[in-house]
Specification:
Blueprint: E1 2-7, H1 14-18, E2 23-27, H2 34-40, E3 45-49, H3 52-61, E4 66-70, H4 77-82, E5 85-89, H5 95-122, E6 127-128, E7 131-132, H6 136-148, E8 154-158, H7 165-175, E9 183-187, H8 193-201, E10 202-203, E11 215-216, H9 218-221, E12 226-230, H10 240-249, E13 251-252, E14 261-262, E15 266-271, H11 275-280, H12 286-292, E16 296-298, H13 309-324, E17 330-331, H14 333-341, H15 347-361, E18 366-367, H16 375-383, H17 390-404, H18 409-416, H19 420-429
Parallel strand pairs: 1-2, 1-3, 3-4, 4-5, 8-15, 8-16, 9-12, 12-15, 17-18
Antiparallel strand pairs: 6-7, 10-11, 13-14
Helix pairs in contact: 2-3, 5-13, 10-12, 13-15, 16-17, 17-18, 18-19
Bound molecules: adenosine-5'-triphosphate and magnesium ion (MG).
Length: 433
């Protein structure tokens, strides 16, 4: 609701202001002073006759009130703006311009109000260890983590790329009684096969060419803390039995050693592929899968928790504003609508990237639709054909983004919110040009 006080004799077509969405117009009566009204009642905007003294009085009564001055010829425009007038108009037939101006202020006030409300929400129960979420599934995940954190030995996190698996892994560690111990991460897909075993379990001097001295592995480095095994689905088959053994009886051996050691750390594994599919395809051992599966946290894709989007936007704006040194107050409604409608194949990471880019692009302190990349177009490709399977839609989307980026893989990867390496893997998988 937008409360407008009409304190001007000018030829303004009141009925047009009255029909503004969410506006409630009060007309000042002859014997009243605008200042008395704003002190007494909730007023958001005052349309004021050219009177700098009155402008000053209204602003000092409540600086949040926006004042539109009518009578540019009778008033020192520069002085009026300096005193905080939102706009100054000629006293002729100005209804259209005033209505436009009111719409603008109304929009900004609504965004500001929503922002204030969201900020309150963010500082409360909807952030958990730096993870934002109000969607019931996310709240359930937060609860689940609180419940298991004191006791778990191993947990598996699944979810599409960019859904926040690493964040959740850190939360599991932070909530656990071993939060003061190391959190050690290994991306199983980011390391050459030959080195993984030695990376995980360590090796003895001379165990293989290049093993010039004894080396401790990550299981030892993690101590009693948490070892995070990212992209567990890419763990080479040859190494999988060793991991299974640690999970079963806590023992492992450095490469080239016969001396068994005991692993004390907790294990959090993450996968952005369907491990069951990997088992079927013969790339993942079934026994290891069954050992990892019982405690699984599945992070839903962002398109299935759109109620989190406004909150996430708010959260990212805050952080990005600080990072780039530009205060962005909010997102215009049409832009927010577009952001909510989009299907986010790169999930939260893609949203973060889009908000960062838009914050840099934004001319004023609000993100407008034109500051966003063409989200609707990408959305249309995938939803144009609802019969498409998810795989086919993903393929079509990647293809569309690649062509939008003129085949520039780094740029396309950024747009999609995935790493360049994982884009290349998908290009191979879908045999894209
Ligand atoms: N719920 C959330 N609240 C705040 N930030 C989030 C949330 N989810 C994800 N992020 C942020 O989004 C980005 C991607 O998250 P993260 O790296 O945890 O995803 P991931 O599931 O591990 O992705 P990938 O499978 O591609 O490795 C990070 O910058 C992370 O901080
Ligand atoms: Mg990750």
């Amino acid at each position: 609701m937008l409360n407008i006080l009409l304190a001007t004799q000018s030829t303004i077509n009141e009925s047009r202001i009255n029909t503004l969405e969410g506006a409630r117009v009060t007309v000042l009566r002859a014997f009243e002073s605008p200042v008395d009204i704003v002190k007494r009642a909730a007023v958001d905007i005052v349309l004021l006759e050219a009177d700098i003294e009155m402008l000053r009085a209204v602003k000092s009564a409540d600086p949040r009130i926006e004042v539109i001055m009518i009578g540019a010829t009778a008033v020192d425009v520069v002085a009026a703006v300096r005193e905080g007038a939102y706009a100054v108009f000629e006293p002729l037939d100005i209804t259209t311009e005033v209505v436009h101006c009111l719409e603008q202020i109304g929009e900004q006030m609504l965004v500001r109000r929503e922002t204030a409300a969201l900020e309150q929400v963010l500082s409360s129960k909807y952030t958990f260890q730096g993870i934002v979420g109000r969607n019931p599934n996310m709240l359930e995940i937060f609860n689940f983590i609180r419940r298991i954190a004191p006791y778990f030995r191993s947990v598996t996190i699944t979810g599409e790329t960019g859904t926040g698996k690493e964040r959740i892994a850190r939360a599991l560690h932070e909530e656990s009684p071993v939060a003061d111990q190391p959190f050690v991460a290994l991306n199983c897909g980011g390391i050459v096969r030959e080195l993984i075993e030695s990376e995980l379990f360590g090796h003895m001097k001379g165990a293989f060419t290049g093993a010039l001295q004894d080396k401790m592995g990550l299981f030892e480095a993690a101590g009693q803390g948490t070892l995070f095994l990212d992209e567990i689905g890419t763990l080479p088959l040859a190494v999988q039995p060793h991991l299974l053994r640690v999970l079963q009886d806590g023992s492992f051996r450095r490469v080239g050693s016969t001396q068994p050691q005991t692993a004390r750390c907790r294990i959090v594994a993450a996968a952005n592929v369907d491990l069951q599919e990997e088992v079927k395809a013969g790339r993942f051992r079934e026994d290891l899968y069954f050992r990892l599966a019982p405690l699984t946290i599945h992070l839903p894709p962002l398109r299935e928790r759109k109620d989190d989007i406004p909150l996430l936007i708010r959260y990212f704006l805050e952080r990005i504003s600080a990072k780039i040194g530009k205060r962005i107050a909010g997102v215009s409604r049409p832009a927010q609508k577009a952001l909510i409608a989009y299907h986010w194949p790169g999930n939260v990471r893609e949203l973060e990237n889009v908000i960062e880019r838009a914050s840099i692009m934004a001319g004023e302190s609000f993100i407008q639709s034109q500051d966003l990349p063409p989200l609707a177009a990408a959305n249309a490709t995938a939803s144009a054909n609802p019969a498409l399977s998810l795989e086919a839609a993903v393929k079509a989307h990647i293809e569309a983004v690649l062509s939008q980026c003129q085949g520039n893989r780094s740029r396309a990867a950024k747009r999609l919110g995935i790493s360049r390496r994982s884009l290349i893997r998908k290009i191979d998988k879908y045999q894209l040009p």
